[in-house]
């Protein structure tokens, strides 16, 4: 995990937001508000979101404004996805801490391993420590296209690790195996189709083909 450069430090006051979804049941336990951030330095081969790799693009939003939007959504909690949340950990830690302080849960996906995050904290990365401190459920590890996980919900590959960082989800780890994945398809008034969650590609193609008929 590399040190943030000057541009990243300048940007630390804002979140680079790629997508905001007010309510979903496909991105973690219960009903959650999901935030996809723009930018990922990890770049796993086979990543489903390569359009989120670039650190250019996205919309700059203040942590205060983003936390307000999350709390206004009234869901059980916040899920942070990417892109890579820990590549903009300082600003996201402020969002996550505000959500947590309001009594909502925080789930954070990362392509970094638990060991890489621990090493960053040991090296003095307060931003990484702060985002971990505000996270209840961490999903850690890069996507590995040759190890697709069809047994646990929300994750892409079997190497990815669920880590409970608080006592907010007792029993969750025991319930994961065999839990179904969900995919959500939204069609807005203009006919634009948006998808989130996780489904096997053949099933997703079939579903989308049916919608276009
Ligand atoms: S960490 Fe996530 S967003 Fe980044 S390349 Fe890997 S799968 Fe894609």
Find the CATH topology of the largest domain.
TIM Barrel
List bound small molecules: iron/sulfur cluster
**What count of structural domains?**
2
Mean pLDDT: 90
General form: globular
Which structural category fits the helices and strands? Answer: alpha/beta
Protein name: 4Fe-4S cluster-binding domain-containing protein
Organism: Micromonospora zingiberis
Keywords: 4Fe-4S, Iron, Iron-sulfur, Metal-binding, S-adenosyl-L-methionine
InterPro entries: Aldolase_TIM (IPR013785), NrdG (IPR012837), Organic_radical-activating (IPR034457), rSAM (IPR007197), rSAM_sf (IPR058240)
Write the layout of secondary structure elements.
Blueprint: H1 6-10, E1 15-24, E2 32-37, E3 59-61, H2 63-73, E4 77-81, H3 89-101, E5 105-110, H4 114-122, H5 126-133, E6 137-140, E7 161-164, H6 172-175, E8 183-187, E9 193-197, H7 201-212
Parallel strand pairs: 2-4, 4-5, 5-6
Antiparallel strand pairs: 1-2, 1-3, 6-7, 8-9
Helix pairs in contact: 2-3, 3-5, 4-5
Bound molecules: iron/sulfur cluster (SF4).
Iron/sulfur cluster (SF4) binds next to loops.
